[in-house]
Amino acid sequence: MNTALSHSTLEDNQPDSKKQLDALIEPYILKHYREAECYPGLRFRQGGREMIQVNVPARDVPALLQAKPSDDKKNDPHSGKNRPVVKGHAEEIRDYVVDRSSNKQPWILGTLTANVPESEIEVIDFGKGVCLVVIPKGVSLDITDGQHRTRAIQELIMGSERSLVSDDSFPITLVLEGNHRQCQTDFRDMAQTAPLPKSLLVSFGALGRDGITQDLIELVGIFAGKTQKIKASPGSNSKFVYTSHYVAKAVSCAFTGDPGNELLDHDPKKSAEILGERLNLFFSKCLSTKDVAAKDELSSEEAGHFRENCLLGMSVGLEILGRLLNYTYIKEEKSFDTDMVLQLAALDWLRDSPLWRGNVVQEDSNPKASDKPLKITATAGAVSTAVKVAKVKLGWE
Q: What per-residue string of b and e applies to 16-34 under the rule 16 or more CB within 10 Å gives b?
């Protein structure tokens, strides 16, 4: 039995509304197919401005959108419509898409914003905000917001990783505006959003370090119920000791010695289990942490006392621990040396320990309170010195 459907049969089965829409749009597309690109759009008003939302296939992005970044060497913000290009940012976005796609994970770049005078394009209104946008091939849309995302898309579609985005489309909010200064004002206004706390970014991640951290927080007793997953700090009067970002830095240090490594080549669950087992051993044997690790939840007073008196109750302490754990990591076996971890647990991790004096714990020349003469410094040099001092104490150097 032949189950193939003819083109006419498929058309007959389409809803009448779709047939009517196709009949309405197709003549315009056929009319302009040589000299222009046509995109269905939704027209709307916002803030007294005329705008249109369109979806553009990835293959059209390189020719359709153009950035006009300011020249930071001229120290003139008005030398372009966009902010100066941030070196490496487009590459980071491109790598994000490649990494997610390679791991068969979903990704999203968000809506781009561009502007063009309405006189340079043709907008065919069909009513109820539905329209067709006809953009002549010689007209480029000036990017108002999203120049680095656009460049990343362009590099992908024109490079060897083209297949990763060739079937994708990207939404563009098209502002019918040609005034140069107004476009700069639009960019400034769109950049007023508050930056997301790093802990929240970790909590919403799924790959590499972010995924490991999320699992680790639940697996390790001293982190579970004691880690702030949304805000930038634990809070001075809260029950929290850590933030997700604090833990994430320690995770990167433990596996690579680099607090910024995203560990995208690591399996989140397996890595969390390996590190979690050793961290639970460490915190349960360390005299300064075993009581805190054994509790499901701390009072605000208990959390505050721990943060104040134990170096491991602070971000810098976790970073030092992570860097020292890296020396116990056997990469070929994907495991941490148990005996060396126990040696780490035997160190004095209290803040006033001589071990940390002169590196991350220093005398405060102008203390806010007479009973608190010490201050913490988390500079790269101080952390590096603290790690070296600890290694000498352990006989690892």
A: eeeeeeeeebeeebeebee
Asked if 130 and 148 touch (Cβ cutoff 8 Å), the reply is: no
Which three-class secondary structure state does DSSP give residue 348? coil
For residues 169 and 205, membership in a common domain is answered with no
Q: Are residues 34 and 154 in the same domain?
A: yes
- CA 136 – CA 35 distance, rounded (Å): 6
Considering the entire predicted model, what is its pTM?
0.65
Reading the block at residue 354, the tokens are: 């001589």
| Residue 314 pLDDT class (50, 70, 90 cuts) | very high
Claim to verify: residue 71 and residue 175 sit in the same structural domain: yes
CA count, 13 A, side-chain hemisphere, 6: 3
Unique residue bearing structure tokens 């809803």 = 15
- Closest by Cα among 138, 151, 134, 137 to 68: 151
Evaluate whether residue 123 is within a structural domain: yes
Check if the beta carbon of residue 285 is closer than 8 Å to that of residue 345: yes
Q: Is residue 267 included in any domain, yes or no? A: yes
**Is residue 274 included in any domain, yes or no?**
yes
Residues 87 and 172 in one domain: yes
- The one-letter amino acid at 309: N
Specify the residue for token string 């389409």.
14
**Residue 184 neighbours by CB distance under 10 Å:** 18
Q: What angle do CA 300, 305, 310 make, to 5 degrees?
A: 130
| Tokens representing residue 323 in the block | 């860097």
Neighbours of 233 (CB within 10 A): 15
375: enclosing H helix or E strand: strand 374-376
Of 273, 308, 279, 272, the residue nearest 293 (C-alpha) = 279
pLDDT of residue 1: 38
Residue 245: give the domain boundaries: 198-337
Are residues 186 and 60 both part of a single domain?
yes
Q: Is 208 in contact with 264 (CB distance < 8 Å)?
A: yes
User: Does one domain contain both 185 and 218?
Assistant: no
Token pair 């009949």 is found at: 23
How many domains does the chain contain in total?
2
Among residues 337, 363, 388, the one where a domain terminates is 337
pLDDT at 49: 85
- Kindly report, residue by residue over 202-239, the tens digit of the pLDDT: 877 778 899 999 999 999 999 999 999 988 899 888 99
- CA distances to 118, 125, 182 from 50, rounded to whole Å, are 9, 13, 13
